[in-house]
Amino acid sequence: MDPLTSALLTDFYQLTMLQGYFEQGMEETAVFELFVRELPAERNFLILAGLEQALEYLEGLHFSAQELKWISDRFSKPFAEYLSRLRFSGDVHAIPEGTVVFPNEPLLRITAPLPQAQLVESRLINLVNLQTLIASKAARCVIAAPNKFLVDFGFRRAHGAEAGLLAARAAYLAGMDGTATVLAAPLFAIPVFGTMAHSFVQAHEDEGMAFENFAHAQPDNVLLLIDTYYTEAAAHKVVGLAARLSQAGLRIKGVRIDSGDLADHARKVRAILDDGGCPEVTIFASGNLDEHALERLVKDGAPIDGFGIGTRLDTSADRPYLDCAYKLQEYAGRPRRKYSEGKATWPGRKQVYRHFDQQGRLRNDSLTVETDLKPGKPLVNLVMRGGKRIAAPEPLAQIRERCAVEISCLPEPLRSLDSPAPYLVIVSEALQHLAASVDEATCSQKTSRAG
Amino acid sequence: MDPLTSALLTDFYQLTMLQGYFEQGMEETAVFELFVRELPAERNFLILAGLEQALEYLEGLHFSAQELKWISDRFSKPFAEYLSRLRFSGDVHAIPEGTVVFPNEPLLRITAPLPQAQLVESRLINLVNLQTLIASKAARCVIAAPNKFLVDFGFRRAHGAEAGLLAARAAYLAGMDGTATVLAAPLFAIPVFGTMAHSFVQAHEDEGMAFENFAHAQPDNVLLLIDTYYTEAAAHKVVGLAARLSQAGLRIKGVRIDSGDLADHARKVRAILDDGGCPEVTIFASGNLDEHALERLVKDGAPIDGFGIGTRLDTSADRPYLDCAYKLQEYAGRPRRKYSEGKATWPGRKQVYRHFDQQGRLRNDSLTVETDLKPGKPLVNLVMRGGKRIAAPEPLAQIRERCAVEISCLPEPLRSLDSPAPYLVIVSEALQHLAASVDEATCSQKTSRAG
To answer: What is the pTM for the complete model shown?
Structure first.
């Protein structure tokens, strides 16, 4: 049972429902859409990410012999046999990864026999929620610190290994420059960065000796951590070392500051480096950073060239989840709508049309039913038919380029980190008519008391 | 490259430091301790969890051929050859899982050749941070709702698959009754629960028919979701159905409410069920719950028998990370101490002695150096010697029992969900002397400016 690809990566109620569908022969086509109910107060937009992993999951979906054994101990034998043949054979429509998206827009639509479409709910939400969450947070960092070098440092406090790896992917996708997480490099072809921790300095008897040893061991990657003891004293050591290293043809690329008042230390260190004839040595900062800290440091004019952003990025610390849902929109050709208080959904198969102003900035979206053709740029496309992708996986670099364009097209109010700015998503008349007609049918549920 | 066990699940700086250690022949014994710097404002105590996964990781640590290929493209060949032989051969001391712990206490101590002890930092923090975070949150839910049936519902919004699985383990360890995450059952032997989602009801033309079909498909597990349309109307259907099912020898165990004012709905539904001759049908509630919501519902006397707690538990939403650190305490027999502003650490190999009052409740802890024997219950024990465990993995059920005792021994102020309550961790004189002597040696770093 592979912990990342197992068909048992689902909620138990999916299995009990599947047994019910199996016994009733309910296998007609179901349409589910994955969407975000509302934006967190701390976000003006979201960056969609995670589609690639969602498609990989659907392509590989099957129950292993060991999993079927576990199931047949708890469910009927015919049901276990039925599951042994289950594969994902449906269609997937989606908005491309790296796109700016808003509440109620169908990020992903699954059209498949009801049991298949039901089973995959838990893992699809799990994958799309995480990466969309992190990409949206990372985009805010990119907006806060334009032209700064931004690296994901968050693996250690990410929620497990998969979270750290997918956070590295989502952060790079959204415009950051790379990650410190090694395994993300071979898995996703993301640039990887890192030089030394405090322990490297502490393990040496002398800080200057630690710097010198590191420079000889990693001559192309000399970025020295200078806050283990006294930051400015260490900066003076860097100046002395730079002169001696240059005689050996070696160059110090930069220093990193990881504690204290980063702006204040950076100014003092910049002065020491410049006075010492090292204007080319860059300053990199880290330590409890997020988009708000970046914005303050940049507005302050702190002489910092790059930032490592860790825990608060990889956990999306101010808002560690999205209000993601995956809801039945249609079954056996009939539109459906959930009516629970505060959680009503728009029924049917939907499309989003995006409108831009004359400068190419986002103006508004229209949410409508798929058959209601509208002007504007349609966002939802077919990506998988009959369980097979209709195109090769999109390269991450291409998604990253799309995302950069998307962020550049955000209207100014939506780029604000602090002020909530609304974005108009028009609900079409056709969709409102559809919802009303579904509600009418639903009303009968109120009065009918018989089973 | 297995995404959950790869030796590349680390920060790139660990590899660059290891190359430096390799070139300098720095392989003497290092002592690192993993601890939490300070409690979040929202927590009065932590429950330690994740040790089992940390030990599994250390036991299995090695670089695969593919990983070595990746490394040899970026580092020297002799270094890659050196890494091909690297295994974890050190000792591990730890506090048992399920124990109540506080800041600065050594949760885990690694004593190993410097490169080994360095390499494992990132993944050890990653594993212990996550489970300790979730177990601590779950313990608060257990305190808020004593004698209620509590189930983890959070997989879908957990940060990836591993996060969801380990959250299920941590929540069960801390006293919850089970999880909805199927794969956690075979992996960790955790009870798994679930019946139906709204889509099951919506896929049927009629809500009552959905209930009836489910009862026949899952006769031992009839818990019906009643808020898809109109909660109280659905409760009346349940009453009607119960009578008919009982003729067939079937029993409705309970109903679930997932939206709206849970206390208000629960009261109305309870009355409908009781008036309808169904006093034995239980009420289960879910939807945006956390320990504060549980506390309010319990204090209100809402007639709810059990709760599903999802997103806010699995993401520890009010505080999605701990200030965990893994710091070098000693190298080559000499104690070390990091001095960065606001991040100074206590040096040396440490032990914690716990003191109890006459009622068996926690009174205070003493943090001291390992050689300074004190009265009280020592918390830190040897668990791995020379890379091998000294005992079989501790059964989860046993850890869960320990945790229940630990929670029962919390003094009343620490059990408060809202009021911060301090707990005294005395820093021994011996430890303060040691820190001062390390600082004295460190002072030389300030003035020495030569490399």
So the answer is: 0.97
